[in-house]
Specification:
- Chain A: Keywords: ATP synthesis, Cell membrane, CF(0), Coiled coil, Hydrogen ion transport, Ion transport, Membrane, Transmembrane, Transmembrane helix, Transport.
- The complex is a heterodimer of chains A (187) and B (327).
- With 187 residues, chain A is mostly helical.
- In chain A, 88% of the residues lie in helices and 0% in strands.
- Chain B is mostly helical and 327 residues long.
- Chain B folds into 2 domains: 46 residues, no CATH class; 225 residues, no CATH class.
- In chain B, helix 6 runs antiparallel to helix 8 and helix 8 runs antiparallel to helix 9.
- Chain B starts with a helix and ends with a helix.
- Classes of the chains: A mainly alpha (187), B mainly alpha (327).
- Chains A and B meet through helix 1 and helix 2 of A and helix 2, helix 3, strand 2, helix 4 and helix 5 of B.
């Protein structure tokens, strides 16, 4: 026996595994592989899948919400535009209506004023006529009365006196300044 | 000696004792020998060694004894016995548990418990821990599985690749966790089991994708090579595909963890030695070794992550090479 074999015999050989070494290695490694294969990696994959699907779902949801928001904005803008157009239309209508009202009022006022003016004119004419008629009869009466008093002659004969008065007035109208002289001459 | 009386008794009933070791002259006697005897009781450790192994130990022994001698009896340099502590449960059943196996089981349970707590109430909006775990899963999925295998095959092999990455990471990290202080990946069993799983999956995926013969033909007789060259190429392909891949996966991880542990033990054992056993001016060396130990601790964190990443990445790459139509 050499010293070398004794050293080797002190425990074991670094290149030659002991039986228990192999046995425990196999046991430990089998357990590790089994745990990774059946427990840890499925769990790991499940979490990753769940996470990616959650992210995917989140993205889809965000896209949906974004689309809804876009639609709502478009709707709102459309309503706003409609409202503005409606307001403009109402304003235009009101202006037109106002203008019509003013025009009709003006027309009415003009008509009324014309009517008043016409009425006043006709009334004045009528009063002038009546004044002229009453004046003629009164002046005729006065003149006849005066003449009959002067000449002492009854001028009760109406047809004659009417002719005289008419002549007198016609003379008066013809030569107003010499009327009293001519009238006195005629008489 | 008192440490192992019970086991000595156990050894006496052993039909195949190995009594001759007591006669061997060795630099380290007393306590070391007592410990070595304790361990020798496990029957499965008493296998005959090949010539290469013997050669390895011829090289290893002088170094170890030299380090031990330098310590003047006080300094015990770390050796490979670090990785074979006493079995304290189920001894000889094949389910023997020693300190390192306990660390391995503990790391496995902590990993599972942590991930279970992080993902148990997994919610749509992740909490802090859930975010971190999801980020790590996503890194393995996108950067390793999808990056190497594409989406479809990446999803198929994601459980294996994630188990490799997080399993190796959890088992590596115990190397710098206080009071655990060792990575159970420094025992070759774990890397070997993982590499064999990758090996089986790699070949299985290739056969499933192309059929048995077509797969072998694609691997061993690569297209576009002149026929006579196969005399040269095919043996190389056999070695590189079917031998070098699992072996390199196993050894890379094992020795990264093993050497990392030895470096840390060396640094802190030297610090202890310089501070408390030599003292005086030499304590200055202790400061240096302490700083070195701290630096290597940080480095080991990097190595723990890096080795997990490399193992998972290479596993994905090997599977991809098997599945790919031509390469």
């Amino acid at each position: 026996m050499t010293p070398m074999t004794v050293l080797a015999a002190e425990g074991g050989h670094p290149l030659i595994p002991a039986v228990y070494d192999i046995v425990w290695s196999a046991v430990c490694f089998a357990i590790i592989i089994f745990a990774f294969w059946k427990v840890f990696l499925p769990k790991f994959r499940a979490v990753l899948d769940e996470r990616s699907s959650a992210i995917q779902g989140g993205i889809e949801k965000a896209e949906k919400v974004q689309a809804e928001a876009d639609a709502a904005l478009a709707e709102y803008q459309k309503q706003l535009a409609d409202g503005r157009a409606e307001a403009a239309r109402l304003r235009a209508e009101a202006q037109e209506e106002g203008a019509q009202i003013i025009a009709s009022m003006k027309q009415q006022a003009t008509d009324e004023s014309e009517r008043i003016i016409t009425q006043a004119k006709s009334q004045i004419e009528a009063e002038r006529q009546s004044a002229m008629v009453s004046l003629r009869s009164e002046v005729g009466g006065l003149a006849t009365d005066l003449a009959s008093r002067i000449v002492g002659e009854s001028l009760a004969d109406d047809s004659r006196s009417a002719n005289v008065v008419d002549r007198f007035i016609a003379d008066l109208e013809a030569q107003t300044p010499a009327a009293p002289a001519s009238a006195s001459k005629e008489v | 000696m008192s440490l192992c009386t019970s086991r000595v008794r156990h050894a006496e009933s052993d039909p195949d004792p190995a009594p001759d070791h007591r006669d061997i002259p060795i630099g380290r006697q007393s306590d070391d020998r007592a410990r070595s005897k304790c361990r020798r009781r496990s029957p499965h450790l008493r296998r005959p060694h090949s010539r290469q192994e013997t050669a390895l130990f011829i090289n290893a022994l002088p170094t170890v004894s030299l380090l031990a001698a330098e310590g003047g009896g006080g300094f015990v340099a770390p050796g490979l016995e670090e990785f074979f502590p006493a079995v304290f449960l189920f001894e000889g059943t094949g389910f023997d548990i020693n300190r390192i196996i306990l660390v391995r089981i503990l790391a496995t349970l902590v990993l599972l418990l942590f991930l279970w707590l992080a993902l148990r109430k997994a919610t749509l909006v992740p909490g802090r821990i859930q975010s971190v775990v999801e980020m790590a899963f996503d890194f393995v999925r996108k950067d390793i599985a999808y990056g190497m295998l594409g989406k479809k095959d990446g999803d198929r092999f994601f459980p294996l690749i994630a188990s490799l990455f997080f399993g190796i990471l959890a088992l590596n990290v115990t190397g710098i966790v206080p009071f655990l202080n060792i990575s159970s990946n420094a025992l070759i069993g774990m890397p070997l089991v993982m590499a064999l799983v990758v090996y089986v999956v790699m070949i299985g995926a290739g056969i499933k994708a192309k059929g048995g013969l077509a797969y072998l033909k694609g691997e061993l007789f690569p297209a576009g090579v002149p026929k006579p060259m196969y005399i040269l190429v095919t043996p190389i392909e056999i070695v590189s595909t079917f031998i070098a891949r699992p072996v390199s996966l196993t050894l890379r991880l094992t020795f990264n963890m093993l050497v990392g542990h030895l470096l840390l033990v060396l640094c802190f054992a030297a610090t202890q030695f310089f501070f408390f056993e030599v003292g005086g001016i030499s304590a200055g060396f202790g400061v240096l070794t302490l700083i070195g130990g701290f630096a290597f601790t940080l480095f080991e964190i990097l190595v723990a992550v890096l080795q997990a990443y490399i193992f998972a990445l290479l596993a994905a790459a090997y599977i991809q090479l098997s599945v790919a139509e031509d390469h």
